[in-house]
Amino acid sequence: MKKALFVLGLFAILAISCGKTGSTGCTPAPVASEKAAMVKFCTDNNITYTEHPSGLLYQIMNQGAGAPLNATSQVNAVYTGKLLNGVVFDAAATPVSFSLSGVIEGWTIGIPLVRRGGRIQLVIPSALAYSCVGNRNIPPNTPLYFDVTVN
């Protein structure tokens, strides 16, 4: 149930945290201001990252196989989500189903870098996650780490 609520939260927050100042009146942190902390997290956790033009850092652990995924693909995944201080804020040990069109932008960008059966580590700047709004136990302007296996 917690996992389903988290995924639904991803859908809801996406609508209000698209990386722009909106009705919330808050200003998202610039990606460049979070990069040093994101790189340090990668270094400290032996993540040999590639930087996406969006500012997302990722390491493909297993490319997977099959047809490429895209921003509107329906996927099943198991994942662990952490703050950069190592605190786990959510995890799904059994596959959760969702559309990539309804999750945080960092997932919409990052998950299609692998195929079904693939595993990817994502370090997502806050502007591509919950921005200046935050979500439950995720503070505003907080970069996030995810380890995701797409089933």
Number of domains: 1
CA gyration radius, whole angstroms: 14 Å
Give the name of the CATH architecture. Answer: Roll
Global structural class: alpha+beta
CATH fold name: Chitinase A, domain 3
H/E element order: HHEEEEHEE
Low-confidence stretches: 4-21
The total count of strands amounts to 6
Shape, principal axes of CA atoms: globular
- Give the count of helical stretches: 3
Instruction: State the helicity in percent bands.
Output: 10-25%
Biggest sheet strand line-up: 1-2-5-6-3-4
| Measured distance between first and last alpha carbons | 20 Å
Question: Main sheet, how many strands, which sense, barrel?
Answer: 6 strands, antiparallel
Report the average pLDDT across residues: 88
Proportion in β-strands = 25-35%
- Please give the CATH class: Alpha Beta
